[in-house]
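quick one
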Amino acid sequence: MSSIIRQDLPTKDWTIFSVKRAARPRDYKEIKDNKVIKNYEPGCPFCLGNEDMTPEELLVINGEKDWSVRVVKNKYPAVESMEVFKVGYDRRHIEGPYLSIDGVGEHEVIIESSWHDDNLVKMDVSHIKKVIRAYRKRFIDISSNPENQLVVIFKNHGRRAGTSLDHPHSQLVATPFVPGYIRNKMFESQRYCDDFIRCVCCDIIDYEMKSRERLIHVNDKYLAVALYASVVPYNIVIYPKKHQSCFAEISEEDLLDLTRVMQTVLKKLYGLLNDPDYNFVIDSSPVDQSGNRHYHWHIEIPPRLSTRAGFEIGSGMNINSILPETCAENLKNQKIPVF
Ligand SMILES: [Zn+2]
Ligand SMILES: [Zn+2]
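structure w/ zinc ion:
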């Protein structure tokens, strides 16, 4: 059988796997230009010494000499905090049959290092732990404002992933509503829970731990798997083993294991696919639904190796040319590069 169509349980979305179109891992390897990146760029707002080039600082985590991680407001925000809008205004606007609302929300930048040429795969574990601690701190702070209904933390690594600055950074965007994509995932997860009295991801985790076919890496508290119905090649998901619906539920003790699993899979991707462009996204319950039993927060890491083409756009259904079992096997066998 050269083609199989799989359904993603939480979303009910379908993905076509066409192994005839399969390419071996090396076909996906990126050919990087040999651009040399220096550890300081005078015009870079995120570099050490250029702190006055960024908007308001929201959090700083210090290192031995200078800061290690800084969180600042995004200079070019996709959404803006309430203060810039008038209190008591009507944020809904109706024009004929159309509805629009003002772009209220939060948009922050997590500067992962003071060095321009740093990279998550090259940082030591204690530094990445600080980055994830900053994510957690900002997630909790932003969630404490009831205006913010969805908080998304994400990273765009490389041009194809949508980054505009080389300096290592990630972002946080909070919106005052829950978009349909997330609402649908929540709905299907809740429906599964109603049917089986179990969290769908807890069932997936139990099965993946038993089958081990798509398991890439596991430690005491987390596991990384190649997603069963992944829409793109090498799509990795990291789950907490214990049921947690919201990223804010991770404890200080969980941070080390989460850091280790993140770094392991990112290093393996780096080694196998020659530092591919990728995104990662922390997918968590909307703030006002945290603590529920049906949604299980997780981190998705889709490398940017393929492009959505006509069929994908026309049908909403994806064609993937490599099976997740093959991706998991290749990543499992990939030695962790040493820097
Ligand atoms: Zn820089
Ligand atoms: Zn669960």
